[in-house]
From TrEMBL:
<dbReference type="Pfam" id="PF01012">
    <property type="entry name" value="ETF"/>
</dbReference>
<dbReference type="InterPro" id="IPR014731">
    <property type="entry name" value="ETF_asu_C"/>
</dbReference>
<dbReference type="InterPro" id="IPR033947">
    <property type="entry name" value="ETF_alpha_N"/>
</dbReference>
<dbReference type="InterPro" id="IPR018206">
    <property type="entry name" value="ETF_asu_C_CS"/>
</dbReference>
<keyword id="KW-0285">Flavoprotein</keyword>
<feature type="domain" description="Electron transfer flavoprotein alpha/beta-subunit N-terminal">
    <location>
        <begin position="22"/>
        <end position="212"/>
    </location>
</feature>
<keyword id="KW-0249">Electron transport</keyword>
<comment type="similarity">
    <text>Belongs to the ETF alpha-subunit/FixB family.</text>
</comment>
<dbReference type="InterPro" id="IPR014730">
    <property type="entry name" value="ETF_a/b_N"/>
</dbReference>
<keyword id="KW-0813">Transport</keyword>
<keyword id="KW-0274">FAD</keyword>
<dbReference type="InterPro" id="IPR014729">
    <property type="entry name" value="Rossmann-like_a/b/a_fold"/>
</dbReference>
<dbReference type="InterPro" id="IPR001308">
    <property type="entry name" value="ETF_a/FixB"/>
</dbReference>
<protein>
    <submittedName>
        <fullName>Electron transfer flavoprotein subunit alpha</fullName>
    </submittedName>
</protein>
<dbReference type="InterPro" id="IPR029035">
    <property type="entry name" value="DHS-like_NAD/FAD-binding_dom"/>
</dbReference>
<dbReference type="Pfam" id="PF00766">
    <property type="entry name" value="ETF_alpha"/>
</dbReference>
Amino acid sequence: RPAGRAGRNTELPEHLKAYKGVWVFIEHDRGHVHSVSWELMGEARKLADTLGVTVSGVLMGGPADDLELYAKEAYTYGADRCYLMRDPVLQGYRNEPFTKGLTDLVNSHQPEILLLGATTMGRDLAGSVATTLGTGLTADCTELRIDGRAMAATRPTFGGSLLCTIMTLAYRPQMATVRPRVMAMPRRDDTRSGDIVEMTLGMVETDIVTKLLDFIPDATRNTVNLAYADIIVSGGKGLKTAENFKLVWELARVLGAEVGATRAVTQAGWCETERQVGQTGKTVRPKLYIAAGISGAIQHRVGMESSDCIVAINTDPNAPIFDFAHHGIVGSAMQVLPVLTQTFRNH
Ligand code: FAD
């Protein structure tokens, strides 16, 4: 981007000063709003309060979607206003009508910041909206803050070994995606309310190349609810074999926990890739994260370090995981896991 190093100190170009407010694209699917939208609403509120501007939610959907209900929920999480766009062609997500709708909304109301969840839908939509608008997009951010009049968006880079902070100085809106569970869920305030602004799309079915024929849920994805699990027992390569990895399942079953794994484990085929925690897997925030035979590489750490309580089991007392675990057990996972399973089974 031409703003470059010199751009940091320059004033915002005159034509960009009209852009005001922080927006969150509210993602919903078959009757449910994705929690990442409320996590982003909490972040949007903080950014907007620093800038002294308002927060708006964007709700797009078809006749069967209860957008007004979602708007009411959005206010309780910090939105001041919701833009509602309802059209038959917006029933179920498709890139073309959603890109046109969101791009039109941005062009007519000019927000300075637009946030989306780094979900399958959010990633698809954010990329095409940013390209259509010709603005900057920072994907998979781990921190958002205001630096002067611009948003400083931090994300991992170089395979997760470095964090970089990106600012979009010469274009608006500044766009960012954030993965589920990276930001904390804000507290609800049921006394809050807000305005609704209704918008039309102006697109007909024949304008759209993609046709939505049917929705077939992915059965494996529905069973693995890692991102929102309260307890996760995770296993690493220190377990040595797929047979030993069953010890992780046994403890998880007794605790009513989900099973997680490192990339080394999913690549070895000891469990499904949906269970991978980390930079290229899921980001989790459980109350308890038990890490057995996991070294604590940075790419794994970024996906689980926000857990309330991390218990690490590792034979190497110098393993990096002990630098950030709350409790450490130096010992073999093959011995410690069965003892924990037995102990919790008896309680
Ligand atoms: P190892 O690093 O091999 O660690 C095994 C640990 O087990 C060691 O600390 C050892 O001391 C301990 N151990 C040995 N025997 C025992 C025993 N009997 N009992 C207990 N402990 C024992 N990794 C992820 O996890 N998630 C990601 O999303 C991810 N994304 C990546 C993206 C990129 C671009 C790159 C380059 C890498 C990524 N990785 C990711 C891989 C990451 O760098 C590490 O290689 C991986 O996390 C290591 O997995 P591990 O801890 O299971 O194995």
